[in-house]
Amino acid sequence: MNITIIGATKGIGKEVLKQSLQAVHNVTVLARNPEKIDIKEENLTVVKGDFLDYDSVAQSVKNADTVVVSVGAMPTRKPVNLFSEGTKHLLEAVKQGNIHPLIIAVTGIGAGDSKGHGGFFYDKIFKPLLLKTMYEDKDKQEQILMNGYDNWVIVRPGMLTNGKLTGKYRALTNLEGINGGKISRADVAHFILEQAANPTYLKQTPLLIY
């Protein structure tokens, strides 16, 4: 499988990179700072570029069967457009390149209709104070993908940990009674690669928690 990862220098994207290479997939990474990719493998190609730059996005996805969007941003109160504008570039690159990869986008608990399911501290304090503008843009990102493409999975992890890969977690589309939950970055990556191989949650927005 040819997998492109946008945002692989840390966090979930780095876990997807490691697990993809272990599974001997052909991996292309789009990175603003390629020197931060400290893995060297024959089946790894690193493209220097930015999610906000159309040309580098187009170059990175031209051979992709699956595109994993796992970009991140530092908490801020300033307006954010990274997620939505980058996704616009991605969909345009797919259209212009006449390709039809599965796009797996990582947003998070609190995006879309998972809003209000993060638990009291997250919903009432942390998200409003530090993540408000980021999640406004993640909401836009989700809508752009849902309305502009037909081959996608949106992954909404709960509170992220650096725990081990267990392969044992819940992927929930019915959030009734759910108020928070944790998931390791390694297990999020595991779910992403499971979906890349067999997209059982196509055009759905599963929340991942233990």
Q: What's a quick, concise take on this entry?
A:
The chain has 210 residues and is of the alpha/beta class. Helix content is 37%, strand content 20%. The chain contains 5 helices and 10 strands; from the N terminus they run βαββαβαβαββββαβ.
Describe the overall structure:
- The mean pLDDT is 96.
- The protein has a single domain, classed as Rossmann fold.
- With 210 residues, the chain is α/β, with parallel strands linked by helices.
- It has an eight-stranded mixed beta sheet with strand order 3-2-1-4-5-6-10-8, sandwiched between helices. It has a two-stranded parallel ribbon with strand order 7-9.
- The protein is globular, with a radius of gyration of 16 Å.
- Helix 1 (11-22) crosses helix 5, helix 2 (54-61) crosses helix 3 and helix 3 (82-96) packs parallel to helix 4.
- It is built from five helices and ten strands.
- Helix 1 (11-22) links the parallel strand 1 (2-6) and strand 2 (26-31).
Read across the widest sheet, the strand sequence of neighbours is 3-2-1-4-5-6-10-8
What letter string, H or E per element, gives the SSE order? EHEEHEHEHEEEEHE
Largest sheet: 8 strands, mixed
Share in β-strands:
15-25%
Counting DSSP H or I runs of 4 or more residues, the number of helices is 5
Give the count of structural domains: 1
Describe the global form: globular
Percentage of residues in helical conformation: 25-40%
Compute the gyration radius: what is it? Answer: 16 Å
Q: Which CATH class is shown?
A: Alpha Beta
Summing up helix and strand content along with how strands pair, one would put the structural category as alpha/beta
